[in-house]
Model the fold of this input.
Amino acid sequence: MTPSPRYSLVVPFYNEAGNILPLVGSAVEVLATLGGPFEIILVNDGSTDGTAAEIAACLARWSQCRALHQPRNLGQATALLDGLRAARGAYVLAMDGDGQNDPRDLPQLLAPVEAGTLDVACGWRHDRHDSWLRRKMSRLANAVRGRVLGDHLHDSGCQLRALRREVVPALFPFELLQSFLPAIAMAAGFRVGEFRVRHHPRTRGEAKYGLRQLWLRPTLAMLRLRRRLRAPR
Done:
């Protein structure tokens, strides 16, 4: 473990055995080009497959890796927030653990954050390799969320992000935080931008979100978040 990383990459996993070693290997190659020490925080969200063993293999192979093991499946929002809070770098990166995000896009997102023009840089999966129904529902959800919460992003569900460490204390435990992080950051006064990134088809494992998780839960959570963000402080 590096004594003082400049960059921290946080990756939550839930039952992603088979995806972890290839993803971390690619991420290590990309982060090594940034010119500063880095760490990779692998968050095991109570997986019941071989995820823990594969994370252990990553720790044995790459000294920059750290592991957080949740006692049970607490959900992606909790896993992400725990990982972000554990990050020690001045610049914090995040991505999904399913192999659909591409680590090669991290430098593009990091550049405006390091330059001081943005506090949070988000990916936009403009050429998305998911089912037609998932893409259609995502576009509708993003349009509604942008109008209700005012973030006006094309793709708030994309987990490929870069942010300044100072943004993390403004985040709080909340259902589907992984999708609402840009809106929360904006409400706290941080500058948020969006950039087109690659998106790959899932080749291993199964998607964790069905119809209820793609529409009903986000709608109800969005309304609760709007009330919270508008409440007097």
Q: What stands out?
A: Residues 211-230 form the longest helix (20 residues). Residues 182 and 232 are 20 Å apart (CA to CA).
